[in-house]
Specification:
Length: about 200
């Protein structure tokens, strides 16, 4: 399939560029065109040109008469391309021109997705750490409460034992006092008995 490219080649002042060779050098292999093949079309007296370009990608060169050719850009001809001038095809954006922006946006989306995933993972990890810390604090509080209860029980038992010791000590002291009194009475009775015996003799 081919697309008609036609128009008039003029310079910046609008002067027709007659006798110029428009050279198309194939950049890629296609079903219709082989890479590196060359098509050459010459402009008329008024700079006019018309040719059928096969689908493919081409480097466009101009060659004035016997002078050296020079590159003026690249064109891409697709099956659905519309007929137009050479300038239309030269200034039309190619898929290669669009690809960097698309790739850039895609890479930015990938980076954003990675950052979002990293933030979500960090939040999940922080939440797990907070839950673990809360569970540890709860266990510590329960352990401290149990220790306090045990300490209170031991203190109460110690106080009870101390009170019992005091009571026992008081009772022992009273018994000791009574024993001392009894011993003194026994001593006096023995002394009196001795005196009675001496008097009888």
């Amino acid at each position: 399939m081919s697309v008609v490219i036609s128009g008039a080649l003029t310079d910046g002042a609008g002067i027709p560029m007659s006798g110029y060779h428009i050279i198309l050098k194939s950049r890629v292999n296609t079903p219709e065109v082989v890479m590196h093949t060359v098509a050459d079309v010459m402009t008329g007296n008024d700079g006019e040109y018309c040719f059928h370009a096969r689908t493919g990608k081409y480097g466009v060169y101009l060659k004035p008469g016997w002078h050296n050719e020079y590159n003026v850009g690249d064109i891409a001809v697709y099956e659905d391309s519309k007929p137009g001038t050479l300038n239309d095809f030269l200034i039309a954006p190619d898929e290669g021109d669009l690809k960097p922006d698309v790739v850039k946006r895609f890479e930015e989306m990938v980076v954003q997705a990675q950052q979002s995933a990293g933030a979500a993972a960090g939040n999940a990890q922080q939440t797990a750490q907070d839950v673990a810390a809360a569970a540890t604090a709860r266990d510590d509080a329960q352990r401290f409460a149990e220790n306090a209860r045990q300490d209170a029980t031991v203190t109460a038992e110690d106080r009870k034992a101390t009170a019992e010791d005091v009571t026992s000590t008081g009772a022992n002291a009273a018994a000791a006092g009574q024993s001392a009194q009894d011993a003194a009475g026994y001593a006096r009775a023995a002394e009196q008995a001795k005196n009675d015996i001496d008097a009888a003799l």
